Amino acid sequence: MLIITLCGVIDSTIFPTVTASQLPSTQHISAGLARILFGPHAERIHEPWRHLFNGPRFTFQEGLSPQERTALSYERLHTINAAVPDPLALASDIESLTAMHEWAGVVDAGMATIASIHWNLHIGSLLDHDPGERDLYPYARMHTVGTFLCTELDHGNDAASLETTATFDPETSGFILDTPTPGACKWMPNTSGTGGAKNAVVAARLLVNDVDHGVFLFLTPLTDSAGHHYPGVEVRPLPQTASAPVDHCATYFHNVRLPFNAMLQGEHGRLSRDGSFTSTLGNPRKRFLQSIRRVHAGKLCMSAYSLGVTRHALAVAMRHSHRRLTSGMTTGRKVSLIEHRSHHAPLLSAIATTYAATLLHRDVVQRWTSGAESEHEETERFAAVAKAWITWQARAVMTECRERCGAQGLLLSNGIAYQLAANEGTVTAEGDNRVIWVKAAGEMLMGGFTPTSPSTVPAADRSLEDSRCLQALLEDIERIWHGRARSRLRNGRRGDPLARWNGTVTPALQLVEAHIHRLAAEALLRGAGTASDSQVQAVLGQLHRLFALRQVKAHSGDLLAAGHVTSAHIHQLPDAEEDLIESLAPYALSLTDGFAALDGVMGDHPMLGAPAPATEMTPA
Prior knowledge:
The chain has about 625 residues and is of the alpha+beta class. About 50% of the residues lie in helices and about 10% in strands. The chain is built from 22 helices and 13 strands. The protein has helices spanning about 30-40, 40-45, 45-55, 65-85, 85-90, 95-105, 110-130, 135-140, 285-290, 295-325, 340-370, 375-405, 415-430, 435-450, 465-490, 495-500, 505-530, 535-555, 555-560, 565-585, 590-595, 600-605, and strands at about 145-150, 165-170, 175-180, 185-190, 200-210, 210-225, 235, 250-255, 255-260, 270, 275-280, 325, 335. A hairpin with a 4-residue loop joins strand 2 and strand 3. The relative contact order is 0.12.
């Protein structure tokens, strides 16, 4: 495990100081919540990144063009590299790597994107393939920036069918890298001259004596230190995107010659200098998936980015709602926005979702780093499904935050709109969310998932105030959709696989959604159980109930029809949700202070330029 000490100075603790607007009875809650969210090793894993990104070198700069913002992101990449004692080890430390994403995206979404490509996809791929075979010193000193070229204009989610070729040359024992068709151009990696010297890891078909051995990775120099592209490398800048400002390009290779050691080899595929090929995997698709394993780790990084910017957006929206005054219900009386149910109810629901998503991500990372090799396929599916759900939820939550801040939420300098737009990239990066879920749905229906046994508690004896009963209802929802999807699959049209799957996919996707929602609720409830303080435990328990109730409410018709709840429960649902909102409202600021947001960054947001007035509501 890599232990990071950035800049030689670490803040005394990750747990936030209590703001002036917090009442004495809630002062300790934010610290207790932070301990649950960031875990027992927060000071080693998260706090160094908080310290680094909270500094003036990462302050938002107004008025930059997209090109200037991209250049700044590359400059900041060097700052990160200089602050890390062992930059190469960072690529192998998934906990620290994902933690970096949680804090980097808050200050510079483009930098976070470039850093993810450099450390996870590029250096990570090099380390995963015979790491002792090549000199990595240029990366350790950031003399060279790494990028990753896999998808093509005509091959995105079907990247295993990509067309770029790396033809073995028996005379030199090297390779000739070529883009055979316009649709085979690599689309849309960061391959411009901005950032100085760049190397790429390029996914290409290995051709030996006209035999296609499948897709492997090839280390390919792109630009020199002055940013000039090497002969045979053609790069065309793409139009500006709506997401993070990165130098996206279309990249073509015209008979670029590579040395023998350019091929990233491993047990999944080895080539000798005489052209003899061996592999422990007979299936070319499996070889491809093994070659790009770092894309799976990238899903953890994308989720981490989304979680970090979502927590920050909520912290901004919550502080704004305590500062901003508006009309009350009587003439001449002013109240803070947070006092209105129409304002705090959606924010509290968003907070519940964000706590659940954060703790779900902790579970995924823990399983990734400590799970058995025999469970790796299941863990990869868990990470993929979680990535899709978390990035989608981030979009919804940040949109809510943006709206709750009104016109000020549109300013990039206020820390929401810029990150919200950049989050769209995470929905597509490292696997398109919908495609990820379709794949997971098929695997779950074909034996990769077994529903839990039904609860023996009669419906009439279930209580919407009991977290265990709510979890059982989430399991019921999961079971309902699994049964429907299985039935559709069994009874689908024979002889037409596409038509059969089309008739199954809708309930199958509902199964995936129900499954990950149940796991997120489970993670939140487990987090509540680990709290040592009774008040923190109670608040987290209420968050869990709110999160679970919203899912139960969305599927109440199915639950009633299946006999899992009674009509009395249906009538109770609206009041149960309202009661939870009312109970949680006094702790709204404590809940977002538990996110340990970057205070220096928060202070730079124009709409948070002065201390918030003491308008915290009194706990019931």
